[in-house]
Each structure stands twice: as structure tokens, then as C-alpha cells.
Write a structure and sequence with these properties.
Layout: H1 2-27, E1 52-54, E2 61-66, H2 73-83, E3 90-95, H3 97-106, E4 109-111, E5 114-116, E6 122-126, H4 127-135, E7 139-155, E8 175-178, H5 184-212, E9 215-218, H6 221-230, E10 236-240, H7 241-249, E11 254-258, E12 266-274, H8 280-290, H9 293-301
Parallel strand pairs: 2-3, 2-6, 8-9
Antiparallel strand pairs: 1-3, 4-5, 6-12, 7-10, 7-11, 7-12
């Protein structure tokens, strides 16, 4: 009997390991089709580097995008290349804007054992972050090109019955919350908390629940929040609408709770052409393209709002 029990245990265990691995392959980034050519060595949860896109060697154009636009980048660049075929080698980072701003200031970024010293030609982020960089004289020109609004990401079917920002203060709800220190959306979410429930709601979610361990502050919410929810580590997370919209689009087990207009905060994305852009012509061409109606149509496809 003991031998039979051991055999059954090992069989069930092997099935669970296989299921976990295949499930991880589905829910882990990069969530987008990889570039063609070369040897593919993407290992879910270990080696995937989902927010570095394109060509590191001798790029024709280098761009830093606020991370929550990662889903737009492939289609946006494909369309850009059809209009400007001379720019084929393009490198893009889609990291939190606070991290990108620090990278620009310090001149490099280190991820694991990789050090990147490329200087961007174009930088895009939320309005507040861009105003800070503008005040430092970073740009030749700037322009808004898209907008977004807040939503709440939950597991498919919304099993914890989260229907509002106030519900995030419930003791049993584990919240995945963007850290305002380096994620611009974090500041907007805190503004929304104050809009809905004043300082008391902010205090509950951002202080008491952080201390209790039921609010988790992310480093990169556009990756961590959906993964934590799909793995059952968090129950809900305030995000940009487009992030939950994209997870549903690709068939991941995610649902979205919309935040009413009266309680919502709208964010504006601004593009800046860097004053010291290494590829001046390419920077100008992409800046014009990003602020065009053609680029706006691609952003709309992924749930973004147009500028006024």
C-alpha cells in the first residue's frame, strides 16, 4: 500500500509540476511575439527581459517609453518602419518613467548582469514627469499624444467582489499598488483615493495595509500586478485601463472593474525630443509620427484615449 501511495503521490506531483510550468509559460511576460531570427531562449519567470525591445547594436533610433505602453510598441514600430524604411534598427525601453528619468540622468541602466549605456532620442512619460525633465532643459520640443484613465484589475470573474476603489481598503483584499516613488500612476491613484474617500482612504491603503502586508508596493506594476493576480498573490490592483484591457485581449484570466468618471483621474502622455538626441533626424521623424493621427489610431486600438 505504501508503494502504491508513493507512486500515486509522485504521479500527481509530476502532473502539478507540468501544469505549473505550462501555466507559467502562458501568464509570464513578454506577452508579445518575439523578434524573428536567432536562437530563442526565453525562460518564463527567469530570463525574459520583457521591457527591452529591438536592437541594441548600432541602433538607428533609441526611445524610452513609459512602461504601460509596452503593448503598443510592436505595432507602432512596424507602422513607423513602413513609412520610414531607413530606420530598421530601433531600440525601445518600456520601464517605469521614474527609472527611465534616472537612467537618463546617470547615463546607464543595469538589469541583472547587463549594462545599457544608450542615450535616448525620444522620451515619453506622463505630464508631471515630463514637466520635471522639461524644467531641467532636456528637450528641444514636447507634445501630448494620448491619454489614459484608471481601472481596477481583478482575477477573471472577480471572485473577491471588488467593485470600487473603496473596496481596496477592505482588510481581506490583497492589493497590488504602484509605488509612487518611481511609478507616475501611483501619484494619480493616490489622488483618486483622496477623491473618493479623502485622506482616510489613502491612509488605510497606503499606510495601514502596507504595514499589515496586504498592500504590496510594486517596482514595475504593468508586469507585477497582472502576474500577482494570476498567481493568486494579490486580489486586485489599480492600474491604467489599457493594462487590464490588454490582458483580456490576449486571453489571460483577468477582468476589469471600471472606475466612474467622477472618481477617476485621467493621465496625459507627453513625448519629448531629447536636446542631445544622438540620432537627430530619426528623433524628429518619430516625434512627428507619434503625434500624428496614424499613431493615434494604433493607440486607440489598445484602449487609449485621444488628446483633446
Amino acid at each position: 500500500m505504501r508503494q502504491l501511495a508513493l507512486i500515486i503521490f509522485l504521479f500527481v506531483f509530476s502532473l502539478s509540476v507540468f501544469w505549473d510550468h505550462s501555466y507559467a509559460e502562458k501568464i509570464d511576460p513578454p506577452w508579445l511575439n518575439p523578434p524573428s531570427g536567432g536562437i530563442s531562449f526565453t525562460v518564463p519567470g527567469i530570463d525574459n527581459i520583457p521591457d527591452l525591445h529591438g536592437e541594441l547594436r548600432n541602433p538607428d533610433l533609441v526611445m524610452f517609453f513609459a512602461g504601460n505602453q509596452f503593448m503598443v510598441v510592436p505595432e507602432l514600430l512596424d507602422f513607423f518602419r513602413t513609412i520610414y524604411p531607413k530606420y530598421q534598427r530601433i531600440f525601445v525601453e518600456t520601464l517605469p518613467p521614474g527609472i527611465l528619468a534616472q537612467q537618463i540622468e546617470k547615463g546607464s541602466l543595469v538589469i541583472g548582469n547587463l549594462k545599457i549605456t544608450l542615450t535616448p532620442d525620444v522620451f515619453t512619460a506622463g505630464e508631471n514627469r515630463m514637466n520635471e525633465s522639461k524644467a531641467k532643459g532636456c528637450f528641444d520640443e514636447t507634445a501630448p499624444y494620448a491619454k489614459n484613465r484608471l481601472a481596477i484589475m481583478v482575477y477573471k470573474g472577480n471572485p473577491k467582489r471588488v467593485y470600487s476603489l473603496e473596496d481596496l481598503s477592505r482588510a481581506e483584499i490583497r492589493v497590488s499598488m504602484p509605488n509612487p516613488k518611481w511609478e507616475g500612476i501611483g501619484e494619480n491613484i493616490v489622488k483618486a483615493y483622496n477623491k473618493v474617500g479623502g485622506k482616510e482612504l489613502e491612509e488605510k491603503i497606503m499606510v495601514r495595509k502596507v504595514e499589515a502586508g496586504t498592500t504590496f508596493l510594486t517596482h514595475i506594476h504593468h508586469r507585477q500586478t497582472p502576474i500577482r493576480i494570476m498567481k493568486g498573490e494579490s486580489d486586485a490592483g489599480p492600474v491604467w485601463y489599457t493594462e487590464a484591457y490588454f490582458q483580456k485581449m490576449i486571453g489571460n484570466p483577468i477582468d476589469m472593474v471600471e472606475v466612474p468618471v467622477k472618481d477617476n483621474i485621467v493621465g496625459t502622455y507627453v513625448a519629448g525630443k531629447m536636446k542631445n538626441a544622438p540620432h537627430q533626424e530619426a528623433a524628429s521623424d518619430f516625434f512627428r509620427f507619434l503625434t500624428s493621427e496614424r499613431a493615434g489610431a494604433i493607440y486607440k486600438k489598445y484602449g487609449f484615449l485621444p488628446v483633446d
